[in-house]
Task: structure prediction
Amino acid sequence: MKNLHLFDLEKVDNIVSPEHFEEITLSSPATKIFTDFKHNVPLKIEGTTLAVDALNLMIKSHVKMQMVVSADDEFIGVISTKELSERHIVSEVAKGTPRNMLLVEDMMLPRESLTVFDYQELEKSKVSDVVFALEQNGLNHCLVVDRATHQIRGVISSSDIARKLHLPILLNKSNSFSRIFNVIHGKVA
Result:
């Protein structure tokens, strides 16, 4: 057995993170800016969770989007803080469902309504291609699917791209792909 030594913690300048070692730019491979579920556990929530509970949980954990699954862990859609906003909840209540009865599955974007990137195409693309495509479609999140294996491979998030490109993230504004596109092109954000 090797005898390891313990040292006193002296002057520490910073904590290392992956961004210190790999600079992401608009010409970087697009695979550098997506959360790959082969390396990161996807955030999932059951569709039968109360919408208000889901929103509170997402706010506390600083999460803006989750995968919605059935009781059998089958993917049925996605939910974001956008769909759980007060405006959307009030809209559903106006249709007759009491606030305390609204479920995630009532508010989510169902899988049938989602558009996705193909992983194999993403492998041949650049960050700028992704930002442009998502800005054109007005999305804040987009799933990445491996169509060859019929699996959801990961997700791309506007907040993650802004952070990886070292763009200013404004806490009081949505970090949409449109905002990222405008910042990159020198337009007022």
Remarks:
- Residues 18 and 170 are 22 Å apart (CA to CA).
- Confidence is low (pLDDT under 50) at residues 169-173.
